[in-house]
Write a structure and sequence with these properties.
alpha/beta; D-Maltodextrin-Binding Protein, domain 2; 2 domains; 10 helices; 12 strands
Length: 298
């Protein structure tokens, strides 16, 4: 599934110690949690392979669309773009002896800007799919799908939720595709329908679950994982991640930068620093062990 391409993105933040998920129209987050950086050093053998034009600039110019916590969003105190994707890209840049320079962009304009040479790459929780591979090469670094959450101590089966109340964010793939299809299957089997409770903001969906107003919540896996990390005493995962697809960093088609990025992130995967970054942000469920170039599925 193409979560970020098809769905209105969900963003989550902390507010007053309890999870609240922000409106997707906002570009700031409230009370951003402090997440430790993983210390990474330059690897000369990999850095030597950076294309000359990028190496001479000393930086990777990265197009990013926010907010999409915990992957990329704006810290309200510093004004800087932070998140899991940011920490991972910063680590990759350090391996290459570079710094990452983040440029905010509309999501749909990132690949055209890469083609035009405005950005070296994109970093925006972008699903690597066959359609996008026609215009850009992708370096994969994560797997994302849908993930349900339930109140702690209660049991909800995402594959048999007939009669349950399930919160979603309006216009997401969970709202438009997943829950309607599962509810229709319930009705066809002579069972009660799933009551889909759709909210304009993911904040309301998460709050409804925390407060017990719904039985479960379905959202993109990094969003759900981060919600669980911030509310460990209240909610937990329900079932396994499903409909997973790779996230990738898009670069210009045929660019020599793609194999360098792939080698750098693979280095971080092999030495455990990548895993630590995913754990710091509570998204280790989507961690992968092998990065590839153009890993579209299906």
């Amino acid at each position: 599934m193409d979560f970020r391409g098809r769905a209105l993105r969900a963003a989550c933040v902390l507010a007053g110690g309890a999870l609240v998920l922000s409106a997707c129209t906002s570009t700031t987050e409230t009370d951003s949690p402090k997440v430790d950086k993983v210390e990474v050093a330059k690897v000369d053998a990999i850095a030597a392979k950076v294309p000359a034009d990028v190496a001479s600039s000393g930086k990777l110019t990265v197009g990013v669309n926010i907010p999409y916590a915990p992957n990329e969003y704006k810290d309200p105190n510093s004004g800087k773009i932070v998140g899991f994707d940011v920490d991972l890209m910063d680590a990759v840049a350090k391996v290459l002896g570079l710094s990452a320079d983040y440029k905010e962009s509309d999501f749909e304009k990132i690949i055209p800007a890469i083609e035009a040479g405005t950005y070296n790459l994109g970093m925006s929780s972008m699903t690597d799919n066959a359609e996008r591979e026609k215009t850009a090469d992708f370096v994969t670094y994560f797997n994302a799908g849908s993930q349900w959450a339930q109140q702690k101590g209660k049991t909800v089966d995402p594959n048999n939720a007939c009669g349950k109340r399930v919160a979603v964010q309006r216009t997401t793939v969970q709202d438009t595709d997943e829950i309607p299809a599962k509810s229709a299957a319930c009705v066809a089997a002579g069972k009660p329908e799933i009551t889909k409770v759709a909210y304009d903001e993911q904040s309301a969906a998460a709050t409804a679950l925390v407060n017990g107003q719904v039985d479960a919540m379905s959202a993109d896996s990094p969003v759900t994982a981060y919600a669980i990390k911030q509310n460990q005493n209240t909610i937990e995962a329900a079932g396994q991640l499903f409909d997973a697809a790779p996230y990738g960093w898009p670069v210009k088609k045929g660019s020599a930068l793609a194999p360098v990025l792939q080698e750098a992130v693979q280095y971080l995967m092999d030495n455990g620093q990548y895993r630590k970054i995913t754990e710091n942000w509570g998204v280790q469920e989507g961690a992968i062990t092998k990065s590839v170039i153009n890993g579209a599925q299906g």
